[in-house]
Amino acid sequence: MRVVFDASAKTSTNVSLNDILLTGPNLYRDIGAIILNFRLFEYCLICDVCKMYRAIKLNQSDRCYQHILYRHSPNDAIDVYELKTVTYGLSCSPFLAIRTLLQLAYDEEERFPLAAKVVREGVYMDDILYSCSSLSQISRLQDELLEMFNSGGFILKRWASNSAKVLQRVPLENRECPVTFMKDGNEYSVKVLGLKWFPLTDCFYFTVDKTDKVTTKRSVLKLLASIYDPVGFISPCIFIAKEIMQDLWKLGIGWDEQLPTDVTKRWLNYVDDLPRLTAIKIDRHMLLPEQTECELVAFCDASSRGYASCVYVISRNDRGPRTLQNIINQNFWILASRRIIRSVLSKCKICFKHNPVLLQPEMAPLPAARLIPCNVFEHVGVDLGGPFFTKESLRRNARVERSYLALFICYSTKAVHLEVLSSLSSDCFLACLDRFVARRGVCSFLYSDCGTNFIAASKHLTEVQRFMLEQKNNILEGCSKRQIIWRFNPPGAPHMGGLWEAGIKSAKYLLTRAVGEKSLTFEELTTVFCKVEAILNSRPLCPLPASDNPDEFNVLTAGHFLIGKGLTAVPEYNVEDITINRLSRWQYIQKCSQMFWRRWSHEYLNTLQQKAKWHSDRSNIKIGDLVIIKTDNVPPCNWPLGRIEALHPGPDGIVRCVTLRTQKSTLQRPVNKLSPLPYSN
């Protein structure tokens, strides 16, 4: 029983003592933060400051406001009692009590740093709860709390902990639960700021009192208020009750009126399911021991009925081989221990699948088509980009359609030809290819990624070539002998088409800077890409060469091989009045062409020798090896397995593409998308 004095009682002046007292600021920490600190580490303890108010004495000058006037009967003389300590019932008492504990922590922080920290972070009213990462640290905290509070005249009782060793140091009369954690054969529970906690299993649980079947708004509110959940452990479970209460307010039902039939059915179903809350057990310790890294991942969603949020704790405790080696070296000395540890860890299938090591073969030499002078667009790489949104007309409400970019790039000169496509279909691409051939000439080889539309177009083109060869009497002899050889890169190997991938990137960059997000018509987009093509073909192929002539500022571009000069070069002087015979003019043109190719071989080819990555020479993969196949947008642990069935080495003998057999099919992949498993076949 606790005596509470009514300091809010009005006097004859209609003013109470609490009306004139300053309550002080709220010094209580958030109860959720205190419980969170209590859940952080493996070992924990709780205790209670016994009769905290009675242990705090008031200043002599302030005690006159705590006089109690009392007599047994009206005829007796009035006895005056003076309360010397902080008194229950005064509005300022909570502030005075907590402020006294904080002052004690400030005064004794140098002697008891750990206890002072706990007072600032783990005290709510007269309850103290905290957790530590080790048994020695929790024991040290217990000693500091006892000594610091004893120095302030406080007594700590009702000790509880999840460690029996901590409780063994506490007298039985000061414990909240016995060492055995059992009571009458059942597990002992402790109240932690209103939550029920099992020290033996170290978990929180919930109980629900038996409820009657009265279906009124008063009974709904009574049950809802009886479930104490300060940190939201079971918020999803009480959401239905809150929703029913909200519906009752909308219906305007009185406190003791019978609920409607549909609401009554929902409420009784909820009450019948409520005892299942006792099956919910929530671990107090939520992190791994000796935690090194921790992340919080939050999700939230809302609807017309309510909103919900959930925060997941992602913890990592990978100390790595170096820490493991240091632990082993404390008792043993193993020769080459680090190498042995790494070899053992690398054979772990689970660890390897979560962090696979992909193959990185040595960079292949440039293909011959990049190094041999030949006609422009003799060897061509092709790729598609987009989509780009175009308007049907200039009207404000004109329909918006998708358009695409087809890029043709010369292997030797990096000359670019751009075409705009109205759709991603094989027929549209073949028409685009016809336009390219009509303007740039027939190419001998065409290279591209392994796109489905490219494959279909290649098959169609092969049929057209077969028809032309069979009908060679009806067509020109020269056209029937020309063929376009189409070569595809392995699937999933965009790095093998870096030449045209870089061209697509540059074209998109220029378009984005010039147009932004504005939608153009198809004609406007075609015009813009023609200008982009001119800019790309005017880019220097190599840096300006060193020369003794200060007027030498012309650099070699792809436009020199197309029209004899840069497409965006400045206008030249009029030389029509200069007489020149036809033979010397032809020789002059030949000289210019030879000069361009000479500069191409001396200045541009040297820049192609640089290799930015993939320098190391590693052993080739072998037939029969079991590998993990990298799959985009899929976590590594879900990457499929495959076995090598065939190798496709390059001209230098290094394997960069293989044929795999998986559980479902046979496919080709580049080796930089494969990770050999660390154990034998």
UniProtKB/TrEMBL annotation:
Superkingdom in the source lineage: Eukaryota
GO molecular function: nucleic acid binding
A cellular component annotation (GO) from this entry: DNA polymerase complex
Domain Integrase catalytic: 369-558
A Gene Ontology BP annotation from the UniProt entry: DNA biosynthetic process
Descriptive protein name: Integrase catalytic domain-containing protein
Annotated source species: Parnassius mnemosyne (clouded apollo)
